[in-house]
Structure to design on (168 residues):
């Protein structure tokens, strides 16, 4: 999720790029999101203003947008019980039926093969690595090794440069 600070930075960058003091450099912006998402880590919501009167004043950039709320569930439209369970999770109001429905959809490691190309969510990087290794081994293709070389351009501080190169 984009927070208040990133939203302001996008505005400033577009003004600089477009050489215009208009909001977002005078170009049209479409913003999509989910109001049920958690607040951005270490930042305010995109629609909050960065002052002590947050409860009284909205972010002036946010007020430039018109809200079009999508009210029809499309992804789970054929599974009403699942759609209701997901909605209840978002509201923090799960009921026993929701919990039982979600538990019924847990797939054991032994039954993973029947899931085909379904997206999988793992609890740890070790589980991700094990699954990725298994899938790659089953491809029966020639191995290709690609080496990437990262470098910094400019007169940045040596410590910053070293940090960037070590964290890529």
């Amino acid at each position: 999720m984009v927070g208040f600070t990133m939203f302001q930075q996008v505005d400033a960058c577009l003004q600089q790029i477009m050489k215009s003091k208009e909001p977002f450099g005078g170009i049209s912006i479409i913003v999509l999101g989910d109001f049920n998402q958690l607040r951005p880590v270490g930042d305010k919501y995109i629609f909050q203003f960065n002052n002590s009167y947050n409860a009284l004043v909205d972010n002036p950039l946010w007020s430039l947008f018109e809200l079009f709320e999508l009210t029809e569930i499309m992804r789970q439209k054929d599974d009403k019980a699942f759609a209701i369970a997901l909605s209840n999770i978002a509201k923090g109001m799960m009921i026993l039926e929701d919990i039982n429905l979600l538990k019924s959809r847990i797939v054991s490691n032994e039954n993973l093969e029947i899931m085909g190309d379904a997206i999988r969510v793992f609890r740890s990087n070790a589980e991700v690595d094990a699954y990725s290794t298994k899938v790659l081994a089953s491809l029966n293709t020639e191995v290709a090794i690609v080496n990437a070389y990262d470098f910094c351009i400019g007169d940045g501080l040596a410590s910053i440069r070293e940090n960037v190169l070590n964290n890529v």
In short: The chain has a mean pLDDT of 83. The helical segments are 4-18, 80-91, 96-104, 125-138, 158-166. The radius of gyration is 23 Å. Residues 4-64 form one domain.
